[in-house]
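Table S2 (text version). Query chain:
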Amino acid sequence: MSETNTAAAAETAAPHRYTAAMAADIEARWQDFWDADGTYAAPNPTGDLAGDPEVAARPKKFIMDMFPYPSGAGLHVGHPLGYIATDVYARHQRMTGHNVLHTLGFDAFGLPAEQHAVATGTHPRVSTEAAMDNMKRQLRRLGLGHDKRRSVATIDPEYYKWTQWIFLQIFNSWYDADAKRARPIAELVAAFEDGSREVPGGRDWAALSAAERADVLGEYRLAYASDAPVNWCPGLGTVLANEEVTADGRSERGNFPVFKSKLRQWNMRITAYADRLLDDLDALDWPDAIKLQQRNWIGRSEGARVDFKVGESDAITVFTTRQDTLFGATYMVLAPEHELVDTIVPAAWPEGTHEVWTGGHATPAEAVAKYRAFAASKSDVERQADAKEKTGVFTGAFALNPVSGEKVPVFIADYVLMGYGTGAIMAVPAHDSRDFAFARAFELPMRCVVQPSDDRGTDASTWDEAFASSEAKLVNSANDEISLDGLGVVEAKARMTDWLSERGIGEGTVNFRLRDWLFSRQRYWGEPFPIVYDEDGIAHPLPESMLPLELPEVDDYSPRTFEPDDANTSPETPLSRNEDWVNVELDLGDGVKKYRRETNTMPNWAGSCWYQLRYLDPHNSDKLVDPAIEQYWMGPRESMPTGGVDLYVGGAEHAVLHLLYARFWSKVLFDLGHISSAEPYHKLYNQGMIQAYVYRDGRGFPVPAAEVEERDGKFFFEGEPVKRELGKMGKSLKNAVTPDEICTEYGADTLRLYEMAMGPLDVSRPWDTRAVVGQYRLLQRLWRNIVDEATGEVTVTDAEPDEATLRALHKAIDGAGGDLAGLRFNTAIAKITELNNHLTKTGGPLARPVAEQLVLLMAPLAPHIAEELWRKLGHTDSVVHRAFPVADPAYVVDEAVTCVVQVKGKVKARLEVPPAISDDELEKLALADEAVVAALGGAGIRKVIVRAPKLVNIVPA
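Corresponding structure-token output:
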């Protein structure tokens, strides 16, 4: 009989078997029921989402996934891993008595939709909404229990109204370093007006012009515009964030060259919060690796600022953590973008300039210009990487070492960045490996000022490498006023810092690697800035009544692009071409005047900085969020001192971008009294990645994975051998498997179980479609244990279950319950599988209490089949809010366990003992066992190791 005929015969013999077709029917019906019933609606304690007070009185649990971007390609099976995990966890939390808020929105602004619009002429809103609709369909099919009333999309004007509102709160704020919090800018203005705070430069506030006042306030505002070094990509016609630039200095999209350029850009003064962002990490339940990444990114360093005089009026300020080595500074290096470079470059090379310093150029200006162009073509990552060849050029200027009085040459080099410290370094080549390599390349002197611990001596010119140590003593470090010779590094640092401070040429300070957040993009598809400029170029915030400032309709979505290698260009944004929108007449409180709108848009990070707050109160048109609602869901608790979301699940790739930005916004809103939570996400969990095999032909090109055949451990495509490797899943690698495919073949519950059973949630694992059938068979056995496949009737009885079954049941309840609460879904499934297998082997109908608790155990993981079986068992309510089974301790503890007894490391006996047996009792039993006595053969005993109740190890004398 053919396979087809066999399957048909089986269907005829068992018309009520759980099949993919039955799963599809069951799943669609219950998804419709949940939507119509509002099963997953989480009540707020107040406001328009207020619900049953009894439900709202339950302990709350706010569970979130990281904001997905709606891709036009739709989901592959790797995408929903985290969504299924949070859904399982949320379902378990509901069943254990919690009021659970779990929803999902869409982070829908960004470059991909804009580029699709440019390529196809389709408005980005149209393509984005179509992608969202497809993704919603795919996610619904998985049975995710989201409160759909709360779903948001960043492109909705009623959403980005509040993104713009938050920007204005930040713009209208300043950071009071004394109070260590943000305050309204109006309070700073009042302090300048009444003289309680001195205006920088000692000027009279009343005598300043409007433009001068705006400039002063711009130095304080938490959102400010400035000329900032940016990643300019002529080929794309836009500025890129660092994360959008590859390690080789090209755009991630399009692979165009990226150059460093200075442009007027909006920035967020995140650096003001550097200390708090560091300190508050201790209160968060986050993976140590993520905390470490944030600490390293913020990069707090204690050291000193030191001034090196250049000429009569200029000075180069450096930050150093090794001020003790100042006597060893033999040259200086500025970042090519440093503002002093143009000022200090002389017209001609000083007499006696080394040829290797000039780069072969006729004048310092020519050398500097050529080198700046060279450095601008490299990314920051490239510039920081250790290169075999050190590059740079002499500026023609000299600075004065403040401790030795020596003139030291000033270079520019790409290994110094404006993004760290002051954009300038004092180079101590004897004790820094990069400075050492540079000094060797440019024939610069090296002076040993830290005594080497080996036998190399103190003549650094003979060394093969630098000597760096924080333990050694100082040498060659004295002048007429100060001597560090013989001091340890810590003491020498303190002595030098005091000396510099006394003379007004330096001071002890703290520096951060963190830079202010570049917040402008030259794109169309993003949130417009709620800022207009008057005829004097002064920025004015729009009043709240004018929000949202909506994106205008345009015919051309693309920024102006240029020849990819043409660095001497600047952005022209799509919005700047819409003159009717850009040039407006507005009354901002002092009569109707002409203004010009900001034509940059916000980065795609903006909407995801605060979306957790909008989930709480999505339909509030009067406030960002109702304070009582925010306090209920996110306010501080005893175990959550800074408040935040109870569980936030997503990838580790956002460690220093989204997560850092969201923390910053939360702290500003907290300081201004808009929210009670100083942190957005209390517990963070990073899920692993579902990988897939990539098959490549002889040319190295991917071939369709689904069409590859395996024969004797080798792989073939269309008869030709191909190589297999493990990689990401995706359309470009031709190995993507969609959830739709698996749902059609096996059902959504099978897909959910398989993804959760593949391994620990935080570990990456390979996808294997052939292995999915294992979870499908588990569901079939579950179904068969309760439903007669021939008649469709429930087969449970009212008989009492036997003790073995009760023990198996309560052990599964105890183990699986703890695993579900701890996000250990793979082991929870293993324990439920073990129970189901036990019930299958016992044969005969299940006792009703066992069947019902088995269904409730499975409900968080496979909700559709659980709902169906629950209804078949005669219940009219949903399993969603049913109580999760509680284990009876009497049945969890084994009556007896097997203890292994070893003599000389070899097993000689196995004893059945009570689980609670003491070490002493177990030792006596083991030593009295006949097999053990025989094995010892009268020998004395040197040692007995007891690990009650499972192990005794006897070591003879």
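Notes on Table S2: Residues 696-734 form one domain. The mean pLDDT is 93.
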